[in-house]
Amino acid sequence: MRYSIASLVANALTGNRNWKPVWREPEPKPAYDVVIVGGGGHGLATAHYLAKEHGITNVAVIDKSYLGSGNVGRNTTIVRSNYLLPENEPFYEWSMKLWEGLEQDLNYNTMVSQRGVLNVFHSDGQRDAFVRRGNAMLLHGADAQLLDREQVRTLVPFIDFDNARFPVRGGLLQPRGGTVRHDAVIWGYARSADTLGVDIIQNCAATGFRIENGRILGVETERGFIGAKTVALSVAGSSGRVAQMAGLRLPVESHALQAFVTEGIKPLLDTVITFGAGHFYCSQSDKGGLVFGGDIEGYNSYAQRGNLPAVEDVAEGGMALMPAIGRLRILRSWAGLLDMSMDGSPIMDHTPVEGLYFNGGWCYGGFKATPAAGWCFAHLIATGQPHPHATAYRFDRFGTGRVIDEKGVGAQPNLH
Amino acid sequence: MRITCPYCGERALDEFTYRGDATVKRPDSLDENTAEAWVDYVYLRDNPAGPHKELWHHGAGCHAWLEVTRDTVTHEILDVAFARKGC
Ligand SMILES: Cc1cc2nc3c(=O)[nH]c(=O)nc-3n(C[C@H](O)[C@H](O)[C@H](O)COP(=O)(O)OP(=O)(O)OC[C@H]3O[C@@H](n4cnc5c(N)ncnc54)[C@H](O)[C@@H]3O)c2cc1C
Ligand SMILES: [Zn+2]
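The joint structure predicted for all components is written out below.
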């Protein structure tokens, strides 16, 4: 059913008893043209664009759990295209453009809110770095504004401008950045892919791959073998575990990242704000809670939970930037499993197994990438060629030295 | 998570810094034939779900490098030894 004002009124008048489930629950068929392993944001966006842009609809998306159980339902929902390096910025700006048209494309309210992303800075050196970043963004057609201290004050008057160690000197603002309702993104892509003929199969973990003479023949799953000449992996924090079943070793470590939400309060923060002297980022949800997070845990982990040192660090960052947050109680905290790549940038490529494709290494920043990752991964799968915006995301960059290290810290995932 | 340092005893996690997988082997030559071994050493990881041998530095304690065996699924610490053998 197409959602419209007419469908809304008609259903309201009939007591909202006639809404249909948003996607089917099909049994897996014996074989498909393409099987996508991982029904997170990236897997479902890939299915949507494969069907819609390339006409490939004999597709299954399998997930080991329910839709939205992974990072797509656990992130802090920030979207932005404020990258520095030329391998990254065009890709993320393309993602931003897709976010801007997503609700029309999906006929689904994903609550794209371009409330701005404000990165405050605290020193002259940091301002110079942000000027450089802002210029790189402008060169790639994104938007960026350098704000002085007083301009920052008009946006967020309550932050600690005169903190003794980290006084606020100004900020870099991307007005088109903001937040997107993460659950709606997954449901919107799932509904669209399903409508276009894609089978979405939940509670169906991939347990192995059938590979003969270097070629993929299909996926072993909890619900039996599913044949496919093309298999696309998009399992985020489980990348290492799943790739291992195909005999691959990846330049990836799995790490946990926590996030937090406070009790709901009246409107306080109408932009996304990030602290420049530590790792802390915060926005206010539509229900009124402040949603925030900071650094990853910093050690390999497949546990979807973190430890107290990271909580303390996030709380200290929050208190240094916006002391008012100290009056609020935290309602909930949780963690997700990140696929931290060795240079902090993603991988989207063929693998040595013919017909097996890989998308991963999105670290803590793959939610904003969801539309473009789906778009470019679908392009790679359908045409065999990398999309022009994703040509740098190759496996062989680690061997050739063409790594994409935004932070310039080297092959150490917990520093990215 | 707490780590029991062989010198200092049981200490809080924030006294330690994590380096990563302790099983990767540094090739001993810069010879061209070792290029692949270097890529393997610097970038590729087994990243297991389960017991993992890893290096931690006790920076806020005795400054020793430790080889810790820890379960990445439960965070349980299974073993702690000095990274340098024969200490
Ligand atoms: C706390 C937190 C905050 C974050 N904040 C942001 C943010 O503000 N902005 C941003 O851009 N990014 C953010 N991220 C990162 C972002 O959420 C991820 O990079 C992105 O969601 C990963 O892609 P995905 O949605 O496809 O992953 P997921 O939703 O994790 O999808 C992977 C799927 O694979 C499935 N799977 C795993 N193994 C198997 C198997 N064997 N068989 C079948 N299926 C399998 C899983 O069940 C899961 O559903 C954050 C992440 C976390 C954890
Ligand atoms: Zn010690």
